[in-house]
Structures are given as C-alpha cells and as structure tokens.
C-alpha cells in the first residue's frame, strides 16, 4: 500500500476474537466498513495459528472489495498466508525478531505497524522504518488491563515530533475522544467502544463523525 493511502486512514477498527464470536466474521468487517472504518486489525491471540489464518482469510475476503486494508496482530506468517496487507507488532514481538532477520521476515508485508508507549519508542519505531505506530493506551482499557495509561500528554508529544502516521489507542470513547483530538491526534484506533455496542456500524460512524472535525 502506498504511504498516501495509509495517510488517508483515519479510523482504525478491530475484529478481536475476545469480543467477536460470530459465525461470519466477514459480516462484522462489512459492518465496520459501512460505519467508516478505514483499516481493520484482526486480533486473535488465544486462537491457534490455523484458526487465526482462517479467521483472517474471511475478513480479508470481505474487506477486499472495499479496498480496506487488513492487518494481523503479531503473527507475520498468518498475515502472509491469509493475504493480509500487513502486520502489527508489539514492542516485545518486534524485539523478538533478530535484527538481521527483520528485513526478510517483513519483506512480504505492505504495511508494518508497531505499538509504542513513550516518545522514545515512537521515535525509535519511526527510525526503524515502520509505516505507522499505535500510541497508547491513552486511557485505562479492559482490552489491555495491565497496561499503564500514557495520557493525552504523550499524544501531544508524538503529534509534534513524529512524522509517520500514528493512531491514538486505548480506552477511547465518544465521551473522551475530543480530548484526544484536541491533543493533536488525527487518527484513532477503537476496540471495545465499537465492538461491544449493539450496532457496530452506528458506533463506528459516530467516531468517524468526530474525526471529521480535524484536518
């Protein structure tokens, strides 16, 4: 994917197996896309590799017709096998790949993202050549119960000092998204505040409307 196309992605949605247990995950993807989600991450940490690939393939198939990229959490091989656009790696997952092997392991990925929790990690990720970063968790979140919130202060720092696209993530709701946008974020990633609602399309659309007020 071109950097121009990624730059246009504003609302980052998830299909997290913790929250989604539908017989047709592709339908969930279509609901998210209908609400304005621009990019989707498949997160299925508790599933086997084969189950993860099967889940991802259904989502990739559904998203393809809308030209919405699909990212797989942590599993590079699953991303490749499912025909996904890329992979998202946490700090430990990135560090676990020997430096000499990173280029080869990630060569087939059109998009590589990385989680960051400090300005130093964000700048390091930019230096390492990733395509985008996640910054957070901004607020406390049940999705990452043991993670210490970084607050909107980090969002403000990253917005002023990091040039690659970043998505603020973690505990973002319609009640606090204004604080995140006011701190300089132009992209957000939302998990439970969309997936745990009665209508994913409506919830996604509400966040997309909020994003519409920033450049």
Structure write-up:
The chain is of the alpha/beta class and 215 residues long. It has 11 helices and 8 strands. The protein has an 8-stranded parallel barrel, surrounded by 6 helices. Helix 2 packs across helix 3 and helix 3 (49-64) crosses helix 4. It is globular. The mean pLDDT is 94.
Protein structure class: alpha/beta
Overall shape: it is globular
Oligomer: single chain
Proportion of residues in helical segments: 40-55%
Our estimate of the beta-strand percent is 15-25%
Number of helices: 11
Largest sheet: 8 strands, parallel, barrel
What value does the average pLDDT take?
A: 94
From the alpha carbons, calculate the radius of gyration and give it in angstroms.
16 Å
Low-confidence regions: none
What is the succession of H and E elements?
HEHEHEHEHHEHEHEHEHH
- Number of DSSP strands? 8
Strand order of the largest sheet: 1-2-3-4-5-6-7-8
Q: Cα distance, first to last residue?
A: 22 Å
Descriptive terms for the model:
215 residues, alpha/beta, 11 helices
Could you write a compact summary of the structure shown?
The chain has 215 residues and is α/β, with parallel strands linked by helices. It has 11 helices and 8 strands. 44% of the residues lie in helices and 16% in strands.
Topology:
Blueprint (H helix, E strand, L loop, with lengths): L2 H5 L3 E6 L8 H10 L4 E5 L5 H16 L5 E4 L2 H7 L3 E4 L1 H6 L2 H8 L4 E6 L2 H10 L3 E4 L15 H11 L4 E4 L7 H6 L5 E2 L2 H4 L4 H12 L4
Parallel strand pairs: 1-2, 1-8, 2-3, 3-4, 4-5, 5-6, 6-7, 7-8
